[in-house]
Amino acid sequence: MKSQTEKIKLRILLTGVGGQGTLLASRVLGEAALEAGFSPLVSETHGMAQRGGIVVSTVVLGELQSPIISPGEADVLLGFEALEAFRALNYCHPKSLVIANTAAIPPYPVAIGKAQYPRIGRLMELLAAQVGGLLAFDAEDRARQAGSPLGVNMVLLGALAASASLPFSDADLRQILSTRTNPKFLEANLKAFQSGVDAAGNDKYWLKRPAAWH
User: Fold this and answer.
1) How far apart are CA 105 and CA 125, in angstroms?
2) Which of 26, 150, 178, 183 has the most CB atoms at less than 10 Å from its CB?
3) How far is CA 140 from CA 17, 71, 123, 127, 192, in A?
């Protein structure tokens, strides 16, 4: 008979730009999953380390043999930047949960005036129409208010932990943060994490509520 951990199949895609802590978030998720008894596969599938380059990473749990997430396979999309979240829509399926930061980081063509940044409200509407659930809010502002201006990753992890989509608890994630975070930044990071938990508990940020998970 298969154990509960063996029955789980969960693919999480994280996308953003360099400097937002996308890769740290995927490592924290992977370590929390490992502590909870899973054998996670964690990978940076595409990206550039310098600030501003697109970064995509994956965390895969359960009876899955590869960290690669193909189009239509992501159960959860964690979007660290509004436009990058929308660009990753093709990786989602009709039941996917999307947690999106609505703060914008204009790509180079927009920054030099060669293109216009799409209206964020419209991007979120299009996302909501094609996935199972969408939680969208300004994670950058929440990180700043928590005293962790670079803590967008912590805010989004908190929101994900509170979304009931993970097969382990927010306490597991907090424990990993407590042991892996520089003590100098721990208090601010935990505040940012809690701010994400609070956002997930606020109905106004749910543009589309998901059906019961699993």
Assistant:
1) 19
2) 26
3) 13, 28, 18, 20, 10
pTM: 0.91
Q: Give the largest Cα separation in the chain, rounded.
A: 60
Q: Which two tokens stand for residue 35?
A: 């502590």
Could you give the strand order of the β-sheet that contains 9-17, starting from the edge strand earlier in sequence?
Answer: 41-47, 54-62, 9-17, 74-79, 92-101, 133-137, 206-208
Q: How far is residue 88's CA from residue 90's CA, in Å, rounded to a whole number?
A: 5
DSSP state of 208: E
Is residue 5 within a helix (H) or strand (E), and if so which, with residue range?
helix 4-7
Domains for the chain: give ranges and CATH numbers: 4-208 (3.40.920.10)
Give the torsion through C-alpha atoms of 100, 101, 106, 110, to 10 deg: 40
